[in-house]
Amino acid sequence: MTRSEAGPSSYQSMTAPEDASGDRPVQDRLRDAAPLLRMTRDSINDPHAGTRADPLRKGPRRIVVLSAPSGAGKTTIAHRLLERNPGWRFSVSATTRPMRPTEIDGRDYHFLDAGEFRRRIDEGDLVEWEEIYGNYYGTLRSEVERLLNAPGIDKIIFDVDVKGAMAIRHAFPDDALLIFIAPPSIEEMHRRLLERRTENPDSIRRRIERAAMEMEMRKGFDVTIINDQLDRAVDEIEHLLRH
After folding, report:
1. Are residues 158 and 81 in the same domain?
2. In terms of residue numbers, what domain contains 131?
3. pTM of the prediction?
4. Per-residue pLDDT for 79 more than 70?
5. CB neighbours (10 Å) of residue 17?
6. pLDDT (tens digit, 9 = 90+) per residue, 18-29?
């Protein structure tokens, strides 16, 4: 489980013409958001458009940070990379949100109460943290250091938001490679959010609006990958990390 799936779990029909807040129709919001991804559409034929020159100039990086707007597919990409590479591990985030019936502590998240989470912040054990819809999420420094020191682990995969990615780079500047996963269009991003059937209309509206900030911050990433075809996106990331 990742932070991209951290929003409200109740699903409501999207057939109504307006979102849950009673404001403008969702389709109007999609039209307004479309220019945010125009630079992405124009670069589909060049998947590494916007990539920093020689992102691996410091040598191989062990910390691989994936960030994206909700619906871009970074969680699916992360799972596929882990399935194909036995020596890679996923960095499990900490959260204060309630554990769901199918989840396991330490596998899906490190589940902490709010007091414990704040104590970890005060002690400097959170590399990055944020509040999302009333719950706290963060990366435990102790978890990252444990994986870095564990034998046989080649790469550590992170699935965090764009601000968290910048914080991880600040904490581990020589080890972190930041990869931004972009959807091919805002309409496709909206379709993927609907298919999850875990988002209510207000949650989808907030995620689309948040995409403006996320797309702007992609400029600070080492690499941008367009997820218009899953297998190709995964292959591009694997090629980057193996060469």
Report:
1. yes
2. 92-153
3. 0.72
4. yes
5. 10
6. 343 445 555 555
pLDDT tier for residue 144 given thresholds of 50, 70 and 90: very high
| Token pair 């046989």 in the structure block, residue | 152
Q: What are phi and psi of 157, to 5 degrees?
A: -95, 130
Give the burial string for 128-166 (b: 16+ CB within 10 Å, else e): bbbeeeebbbbbbbebbeebeeeeeeebbbbbbbbebbb
Residue 170 shares a structural domain with residue 215: yes
Q: Is the pLDDT of residue 55 over 80?
A: no
- Number of folded domains in the chain? 2
Q: Is residue 58 scored above 80 in pLDDT?
A: no
**223 and 145 belong to one structural domain:** no
Quick one: 184 exposed, middle or buried, by C-beta within 10 A (0-12, 13-18, 19+)?
middle
Tokens of 210: 């948040």
Q: Where residue 190 falls among pLDDT bands split at 50, 70, 90?
A: low
Q: What is 150-187 written as a DSSP string?
A: STT--EEEEE--HHHHHHHHHHSTTTEEEEEEE-S-HH
C-alpha of 6 from chain center: 11
